[in-house]
UniProtKB/TrEMBL annotation:
<feature type="repeat" description="PPR">
    <location>
        <begin position="291"/>
        <end position="321"/>
    </location>
</feature>
<dbReference type="Pfam" id="PF13041">
    <property type="entry name" value="PPR_2"/>
</dbReference>
<feature type="repeat" description="PPR">
    <location>
        <begin position="393"/>
        <end position="427"/>
    </location>
</feature>
<feature type="repeat" description="PPR">
    <location>
        <begin position="463"/>
        <end position="496"/>
    </location>
</feature>
<dbReference type="InterPro" id="IPR002885">
    <property type="entry name" value="PPR_rpt"/>
</dbReference>
<keyword id="KW-0677">Repeat</keyword>
<feature type="repeat" description="PPR">
    <location>
        <begin position="256"/>
        <end position="290"/>
    </location>
</feature>
<feature type="repeat" description="PPR">
    <location>
        <begin position="151"/>
        <end position="185"/>
    </location>
</feature>
<feature type="repeat" description="PPR">
    <location>
        <begin position="323"/>
        <end position="357"/>
    </location>
</feature>
<protein>
    <submittedName>
        <fullName>Pentatricopeptide (PPR) repeat protein</fullName>
    </submittedName>
</protein>
<feature type="repeat" description="PPR">
    <location>
        <begin position="428"/>
        <end position="462"/>
    </location>
</feature>
<dbReference type="InterPro" id="IPR051222">
    <property type="entry name" value="PPR/CCM1_RNA-binding"/>
</dbReference>
<feature type="repeat" description="PPR">
    <location>
        <begin position="46"/>
        <end position="80"/>
    </location>
</feature>
<feature type="repeat" description="PPR">
    <location>
        <begin position="221"/>
        <end position="255"/>
    </location>
</feature>
<feature type="repeat" description="PPR">
    <location>
        <begin position="116"/>
        <end position="146"/>
    </location>
</feature>
<dbReference type="Pfam" id="PF12854">
    <property type="entry name" value="PPR_1"/>
</dbReference>
<feature type="repeat" description="PPR">
    <location>
        <begin position="358"/>
        <end position="392"/>
    </location>
</feature>
Length: 496
């Protein structure tokens, strides 16, 4: 076209640029490169050309370049359109620059311009992604019927976010309002709600919505079915989960590896690893390739029932690269079965394969070291992982405190415990119980009682174990009056 004489209209070039950007491969860099060729040939772009270019830079995360094109629009004397502003806002949201996008939105509205559904959809999505679902809902209310016609996409984003935050009642209320406003729900709307009801354990309501989908002639997709199968498996209702798979296949939706993984996970949760292995074999028979999660489910299931050698054999048969979870399951099982040297070998293998260990992996090794009276080695390992930039979690410190207390090194345990409180860690009842047990072992009953009182001041409620630990120690040391007083306190609290 550039070689043609006369040169075709810029409108024709715009059609090509637009088609390239809309193609499945999203050739944004190609479109930018072709635009530069237009410039070299002194072909003047239109507002449409420049909007396409802003869109390209926005999707590539090059917001500075996108705004330089916006400046070019103004320099050429063009009037920015709704598409111009929407594309810039969408680009900022995609880049995670939500604060800047909201400020830009306010400026644009202040200048008397209007935005479209795409802009508001991007802003609502951006707010939900950073956990500001209430602000997203407020925006929906502000724009509804005033600035723009709200659509199913905007509602879906907020409903999904509310469901993920377990605010299912509010999500369902919003769904009801949506129906009243004559906005038709789709498979995404109902799947989000079904997921919400499932994660709060309301399976009856989830299946009620599933049947509502069918009545509304909304075809459930693989995601809808997988949510229900997963929820049933977690409840131990494997038979019902298999029935859902049968319904799914009848509806013409083919199970995927994820579907079978969910079923395998259900069997393993019920300690029926052999049945899970049968499902694993079905994956191969259906000409699917098991993924790393498929193997990890079986390995974890075998480890859980202490069939460590079988888990190691399965690990060796893997046809894909194991991940951190796979290694962590095996390392934990080896540590618990006393095969620590083998666990260290696996850790070395992880590093050799470029698979970084995480704090969960190291906690298993720390627990094994403390159990085998190697607390100093455990402390050295914590220092080593900190040097690697891995942040210990509360479980790491719980393991160390417990190990130190059992070794009679109460002062060292107290230093770690106090440090946790100073640093603002959410110290839970297990940690307090460990410290109380350590104090009781040293005969420091008054200190143990003081710590019991401080627990609630720090927002932690004592449990049966807390009281029983102190009461047992007091009776053992003939402190019967104090023990009986605590027993009465337990009764008052409804713990006995």
């Amino acid at each position: 076209m550039l070689r043609m004489n006369p040169t075709p209209s810029i409108v024709e070039f715009n059609k090509i640029l637009g088609s390239i950007v809309k193609s499945n491969n999203n050739h944004y860099t190609t479109a930018i490169s072709l635009f530069h060729q237009l410039e070299l040939n002194r072909i003047t772009p239109t507002i449409v050309t420049l909007n396409i270019l802003i869109n390209c830079y926005g999707h590539l995360g090059e917001i500075t370049f996108a705004f330089s094109i916006f400046a070019k629009i103004l320099k050429l004397g063009y009037h920015p359109t709704t598409i111009t502003f929407s594309t810039l806002i969408n680009g900022m949201c995609l880049k995670g620059k939500l604060k800047e996008a909201l400020h830009f939105h306010d400026d644009v509205i202040g200048l008397g311009f209007h935005l479209d559904q795409v802009s508001y959809g991007a802003l609502i999505s951006g707010l939900c992604k950073i956990g500001e679902t209430r602000a997203a809902l407020k925006m929906l209310r502000q724009i509804e019927g005033k600035l723009v016609n709200t659509n199913v996409v905007m509602y879906n984003i907020i409903i999904d976010s509310l469901c993920k935050e377990k605010l299912v009642t509010e999500a369902y209320e919003l769904y009801s309002q949506m129906i009243l406003k004559k906005i038709s729900p789709n498979v995404v709307t109902l799947s989000s709600l079904i997921y919400g009801f499932c994660i709060v354990g309301q399976l009856k309501e989830a299946f009620g919505l599933f049947h509502e989908m069918l009545l509304k002639n909304i075809n459930p997709n693989i995601y809808t079915f997988t949510i229900l199968i997963d929820a049933l498996c977690k409840e131990g209702k494997i038979k019902e989960a298999k029935n859902v798979i049968a319904v799914m296949m009848k509806e013409g939706v083919e199970p995927t590896v994820v579907t079978y993984n969910t079923l395998m996970d259900g069997y393993c949760l019920d300690n029926e690893v052999n049945k899970a292995k049968n499902v694993f074999n079905v994956i191969g028979k259906r000409r699917m390739t098991p993924n790393v999660h498929s193997y990890t489910i079986i390995i974890n299931g075998l480890c859980k029932i202490k069939m460590v050698d079988e888990a190691l054999n399965f690990f060796k048969e893997m046809h894909c690269e194991p991940n951190t979870v796979t290694y962590s399951s095996l390392i934990d099982a080896l540590c618990k079965s006393g095969r620590i040297s083998h666990a260290w070998e696996l850790l070395d293998q992880m590093h050799d394969r470029g698979q970084p260990a995480n704090i969960i992996t190291y906690n298993s090794l720390l627990h094994a070291l403390c159990k085998n009276h190697q607390v100093d080695k455990a402390i050295a390992l914590v220092k080593k992982i900190k040097d690697q930039g891995i942040q210990p979690n509360i479980n790491t410190y719980n393991i160390l405190i417990d190990g130190l207390c059992k070794e009679g090194r109460l002062e060292n345990a107290q230093v770690i415990f106090q440090d946790l409180l100073i640093k603002g860690y959410k110290v839970k009842v297990w940690t307090y119980n460990t410290m109380i047990n350590g104090l009781c072992l040293e005969g420091l009953f008054d200190e143990a009682m003081t710590l019991l009182e401080k627990m609630e001041d720090n927002g932690c409620t004592p449990d049966v174990v807390t009281y029983e630990t102190i009461i047992y120690a007091l009776f053992k040391n003939d402190e019967n009056d104090k023990a009986e007083k605590l027993l009465r306190e337990m009764i008052t609290r409804g713990l006995l």
